[in-house]
Amino acid sequence: MTGVSVVGGGLIGLATALRLADRGHAVTLLDPAPASGATHHAGGMLAPAAEVVYRQESLFPLMQRSAELYPGLIQAVEKHTDLPTGYRTEGTLVVAADRADSTHLAELSDYQSAHGMDVERLPLRQARKLEPSLSPQLAGAVLIPGDHQVNPRMFAAALLDALANLGVSIVREKVTELPGDEQVVLANGLGAAALHEGLQLRPVYGDILRLGVPDHLSPLITRVVRGFVADRPVYLIPRSDGTLAIGATSREDDRPVPRTSAIHDLLGDAIRLVPGVEECDFLEATTGARPGTPDDLPYLGRVSGNLIISTGYFRHGILLTALAADATLALVEGRDPGIDLAACDPHRHQEF
Ligand SMILES: Cc1cc2nc3c(=O)[nH]c(=O)nc-3n(C[C@H](O)[C@H](O)[C@H](O)COP(=O)(O)OP(=O)(O)OC[C@H]3O[C@@H](n4cnc5c(N)ncnc54)[C@H](O)[C@@H]3O)c2cc1C
């Protein structure tokens, strides 16, 4: 069995370490503050259909494959811990606030169907039967049964517990130089650019809110509700701990905390779709930095005899965790990862 150092303990590094340790490899995980990066802020939607972006076809098979691998990852974690992961499979409802949003939603669902994704237009009456808290004033609804969710904070805590139970050594230190004498997996999100030349990573900030649903309204919604309000996307994620996440903005300025206007828009749009949000307790507003690459595809692959890169997961890192962990295990063991990773070549943006 191989000695492997995993640098970075966000969901990508944690799940990779889990897959490796579960197979008997001697794993060391290095991170000064595990699960404190983008993972701490993420919504946790596992949404290979609802998250599609036009003209990013190279991403779709990766997202789809990762969604298929998720149940296996959850099972592997549950073998080694009793802590909950917040994995839920009720599906996702996408709604439109007005006529223009409805046109947008119809075009998007046509595009999703054309790419083989399972999306189903629903009469509004039926959507409100599924989620009675939805506003009666909506203009369209689509059900996506295959888009699920995990609670990233819970999942990270469960993974850390599973790693401890597997005997993985967790070193709470920042890595400033790559360990030279064994296999290394560089999975430290935005921090990877400082440790390996040629990775072009940039922070894409996202603001997200957490609310508490009061007992008399609970559960306010029972599945992820996404929507478009005046062309702005918004999502509401019900958690098994009785909270509700509402997100998220996407911006490339240099402000690491949420602007008042972002909180205002997110709340206003969420209330437009689910009026009961007005009655919830406001718990927190935070900002996370997604590790973006120039083409929005991750950097995943072996770059030398002992170095594998696994970063740049941008808006899909929670979903892509299952694929990243499985593919990296295969790369460490010298096996075929079972999916074409050519588009993820970590050196594709290197300037010679
Ligand atoms: C608001 C928001 C909502 C999101 N929603 C979703 C969603 O619904 N679904 C989805 O799929 N994705 C979502 N994402 C994206 C997702 O959060 C990221 O793609 C994912 O968390 C990336 O995981 P990671 O492990 O690569 O990086 P991170 O979670 O950022 O972890 C990197 C880790 O590396 C450590 N580190 C950094 N430098 C070093 C070093 N030198 N040495 C050791 N350790 C180091 C850090 O301490 C950190 O723990 C969202 C992101 C944001 C911000």
From TrEMBL:
GO terms for biological process: thiamine biosynthetic process; thiamine diphosphate biosynthetic process. It catalyses: glycine + O2 + H2O = glyoxylate + H2O2 + NH4(+). GO terms for molecular function: flavin adenine dinucleotide binding; glycine oxidase activity. One of its GO terms (cellular component) is cytoplasm. The keyword Oxidoreductase applies. It comes from the Bacteria. The keyword Oxidoreductase applies. Gene3D superfamilies: D-Amino Acid Oxidase, subunit A, domain 2 (3.30.9.10), FAD/NAD(P)-binding domain (3.50.50.60). Pathway: Cofactor biosynthesis; thiamine diphosphate biosynthesis. Keywords: Oxidoreductase, Thiamine biosynthesis. It holds the Pfam family DAO. InterPro entries: FAD-dep_OxRdtase, FAD/NAD-bd_sf, Gly_oxidase_ThiO. Residues 4-328 form the FAD dependent oxidoreductase domain. Its EC number is 1.4.3.19. This is glycine oxidase. It comes from Corynebacterium comes. The lineage of its organism: Bacteria, Bacillati, Actinomycetota, Actinomycetes, Mycobacteriales.
